[in-house]
Fold:
Amino acid sequence: MADRARSARAVACALTAVLVCATESDAQSAGQHHSIIIVTGQSNARPRFAEGFIEAIEASGAIPDARLFHRHHSGNWMVRWIGGEAGAHTLGDNFLADLWNPDGTSSLQQEIAEIEASGETWTLDGFVWFQGEGDSGSPLHRSLYRSRFEHMIATLEAAYELPRDLRVVITEIDFNGDADALAQAGGRTPEDIDAMRAIQREIAEADPTIESVDSRGWPRFDLWHIGDLGDPRGLYALAGDFGAAQAAIYLGIERAPTRADLNADGVLDLSDINAFGEGFAAGDPRSDLALPIGVLDLADINAFIDLFTGP
Structure:
């Protein structure tokens, strides 16, 4: 305990010395800005769902520069985005192809490169997730789901060096209530679905920048998929309605002004420096601000300094 206390004091003192001498960053360029919102998941995260969400965001006027980035992968389990377990997570094919890749080739990185090549600016504003039906039938994959999801969000925030936490909306999955059909779909039970839903709620309850939205009660035209065969607007119109309903939840998420505001009081001061130093010494994931996620090192100290002194 004494060694940890000395480490915490040493980190805090070093940070204080650097921060006293820090200068403000240059202002962003005045070109068009894009607030990118990622909408992704498996089949329920279909185009109409994503369109309903972004249309409602645009109609609200709350994010006038909102830009949708959408990908979905029917039937894919969480392991296709993030695999492994706490302390040994891996980046799956979908994450590397869609969201971020160390070699810079993901679809999102390419889109950002095009924005920058046009002399425009961008931020990642948020992340909307509709996935988990596949994982629901496996006690093992359910047990790993939360740490994998949290690793996914932390990796995005660190990889893109985000000044603020992402706003995140996660959908609590459900089915159409047909227990017999559910049993035929991989031997699942209603209790399996409830266990998966509880995990998704827990993820949201653990982080003030994450909200869960319940899909229970929304009509489904088969076992899993939100929609209505008789809707004159089209089969997936209800999926668009559900996406729109999530927009209001998304806009209500409050975030600290920077990820360096570790006590979330809206002020960057010595208490945040101390919190970072103590968390760094104790292995607290709140101090894990840079890649590689899961390792606390000099990169995290530098990231904290940049966030604390940034615009």
Observations:
- The two ends are 36 Å apart (CA to CA).
- Confidence is low (pLDDT under 50) at residues 20-29.
